[in-house]
Specification:
Strand content: 15-25%
Structural class: alpha/beta
Number of helices: 5
Length: 159
């Protein structure tokens, strides 16, 4: 399985990037090839990011929750990719927040991806009060990655 990990934050060096790095480390344990891209500069790098996106069947979206929604950087990225780019993709979602959250951003992104005929793999993960992540917290990512790997093998026959 090859996985594209997308940091949906509009800010460089943020808490969401920390979760991307944790996911990448866990991918190594599961022998999942992965690449992290950051959308903080999506307006200037959209062509390069679009080309990268098209190379992957499995996508892990990591987005901060802003005002009960997901990031504007992800919204813009989805707009430039177009609905047809999402068909047959396997998606996982992780939402991050420095405070208490309502899962609204996670749910909105899942609903949008679902409406574009993509597969959304449970469990959707939410990290609140993200200033400290322990091993128990990263186990949630491990479960999501294992589920994505399972469906990738079933659908695409990948290892």
């Amino acid at each position: 399985m090859r996985l594209l990990i997308i940091n949906g934050s509009g800010r460089k060096n943020n808490n969401s990037h920390f979760i991307c790095e944790q996911a990448s480390i866990l991918c190594g344990r599961l022998e999942i090839k992965n690449q992290i891209i950051d959308l903080y500069d999506v307006y200037n790098t959209k062509d390069k990011l679009k080309e990268l996106f098209q190379r992957y069947e499995c996508i892990l979206w990591i987005s901060p929750e802003y005002n009960r929604s997901f990031s504007a950087s992800i919204k813009y990225f989805i707009e430039i990719l177009g609905v047809e780019s999402f068909q047959k993709k396997i998606n996982g979602i992780i939402s991050t927040s420095i405070g208490i959250s309502s899962r609204a951003g996670l749910n909105q992104l899942a609903n949008l991806l679902f409406s574009m005929d993509t597969l959304i793999i449970p469990p959707g993960i939410e990290y609140n009060n993200i200033l400290y992540i322990d091993e128990k917290a990263t186990d949630k990512i491990l479960i999501l990655l294992k589920n994505m790997k399972y469906f990738d093998k079933k659908i695409y026959g990948s290892n």
